[in-house]
Amino acid sequence: MPAVRIYARFLKRPLDIVVAAILLAVLSPLFLLAAIIVRLDSPGPVFFSQRRLGRGGRVFTLHKFRTMTDEPRKVTGEIRDSGADVGVTRAGYWLRRFKIDELPQLWNVLVGDMSLVGPRPAMPQQLDELDEVGRMRLLVRPGLTGLAQVNGNIFLTWPQRWRFDRQYVENVTFITDVGIMLRTALVILLGERRFAKED
After folding, report:
1. 96 phi/psi in degrees, rounded to 5
2. What phi and psi, each to the nearest 5 degrees, are found at residue 169?
3. Helix, strand or coil, per DSSP, at residue 87
4. Pairing between strand 47-53 and 59-65?
5. pLDDT at residue 192, rounded to an integer
6. Domains in the chain: boundaries
7. How many CB atoms lie within 10 A of CB 108?
8. How far is CA 94 from CA 118, 125, 128, in A?
């Protein structure tokens, strides 16, 4: 069996469990601080939960720290900075900027809904919009970060993201995963726009 198959089938999930458990323990003070800041900054719950598509199209509940107010959100097709959306709270801007709002998804990784690395989970209503390339992302567990996220993320069109997702699905290796996680750290420090790639 090729090494890529061995990692994807037998090693990736155990590594997800170990790393997610360690990070949940180590980052627990940051979780507490973020929860306090969210509650003090604006009325509403600490966490935001949303239904997303997992491997094979299975629907699961994804968790984030809440970064929005209760005001209705104006939806447009414009790609904009992650903290510039109308309705994002003051604390929410910084939680998004440094990806702290995504950390509760470590629980999703621990219980098996997600992986540390993989295509970001789509919403169920997006299923009909996925073309043949886009549907390949459903062959693996969605990730906390992925190849599209370190190549521009919100500055990419959906078809561009799907092509990066296909590239990942076709090359799930330990080296690829480590590389994406290291590049994710750079994206958090320097911002997504700097890593956006032209088509």
Report:
1. -70, -45
2. -55, -35
3. coil
4. antiparallel
5. 79
6. 3-195
7. 23
8. 24, 28, 33
Expressed in angstroms, the distance from the first to the final Cα of the chain is 35
With tokens 């959906």, the residue in question is: 158
93-110 pLDDT, tens digit per residue, is 999 999 999 999 999 999
Q: List the one residue out of 190, 17, 188 whose CA is nearest residue 100.
A: 188
* Tokens describing residue 131: 């073309």
Residue pLDDT, tens place only, 135-187: 999 999 999 999 999 998 888 998 999 999 999 999 999 999 999 999 999 99
Neighbouring CB atoms inside 10 A of 181's CB total 16
The closest of 86, 143, 104, 71 to 95, measured between CA atoms, is 104
Q: Bridge-partner residues for 48, per DSSP? A: 64
Q: Which of 31, 70, 29, 65 is nearest to 47 (CA)?
A: 65
Tokens linked to 24: 């949940």
| Contact present, 158 and 186 (Cβ < 8 Å) | no
| Whole-number Å distance between alpha carbons of 137 and 89 | 31
CA–CA distance, 136 with 155 (Å, rounded to integer): 21
- pTM of the predicted structure, to 2 decimals: 0.86
